[in-house]
Amino acid sequence: MLRKLTPAGVHPPFGKYVHGIEVPPEARLVMTSGQLGLAEDGDVPETAFDQAMLCLRSCGAILAEAGMGPRDVIRVSAYVTDRDYMAEYMRARDIWLADSGHEPASTLVIVSGFTRPEFLVEVEMTAAKFP
């Protein structure tokens, strides 16, 4: 089983995540590439929230291909192009994880941009599944 790491002397997390997760050696790992807010038909939504939802759905589809889901996510790394998009991304992440009852480790970074200017959010995940 995963063990949440919440050591004394470290400020509590700012959102729905944990500071660290220990994964036992018998777990199978999956890592996604960064997923942009790009629909299958090539559409790019205008809002950071809608892009984040697409990023999370794409990561979820990759995990599902390996027989995993939100409950198996141990780390989420997200990148947004503006501080104003942080809350929209976090709302999307919380919605995506809501039914799992799970809080992974998480990092959110503000970056100067992506390959195309219309991209506002990118998300990548690491997940672990036990035999």
From TrEMBL:
GO terms for molecular function: hydrolase activity. Coiled coil: none annotated. Signal peptide: none annotated. InterPro entries: RutC-like_sf, YjgF/YER057c/UK114. Keywords: Hydrolase. CDD domains: YjgF_YER057c_UK114_family. Its EC number is 3.5.4.-. It comes from the Bacteria. Gene3D superfamilies: RutC-like. It is an enzyme of class 3 (hydrolase). This is Putative reactive intermediate deaminase TdcF.
